[in-house]
Amino acid sequence: MTRYYKTVLYASERQFERFNELVQLAKILHDTCDEGEKIYPGFINIIGDIWSVFYLRNPRLNPSMKENNDIQYEMLTHLMQTEEFVRWQSLTATDDLLSVLTAVSISEQLKNWLKENKELREAQRKQERAERSKQRAEQRLKDIQKTLSDASVTEQTKRQAQLQKEFTQKQLLAAQKEQQQAQTDVQKTMKKLSMEQFSAMLTKSKTDARTTKQAIIQIGTLDGKKLETVPMGEQFQLAEQMKQYDLLKKIAELTGRFKRIAKKKQKTKHRMTMERKNVTYGQEIARLLPMELASFVLPNAKLDFLKRYSEQQTLIFDTKGKDRRGRGPIIICMDESSSMTSIKAESKAFCLALLMIARKQKRDFAIVPFASEVGEVVIFAKGRSTAEDIMNFSTHFLGGGTNYEKPLRASLDILTKSEFNKADMLFVTDGSSFLSSRFLDEFNTIKKKRNFECTSIVLTNLIQTVNLDIVHRFSDKVIEVKDLFDAEEVFSMY
Question: At what angle do helices 43-55 and 27-39 cross, to 10 degrees?
Answer without folding.
Answer: 140
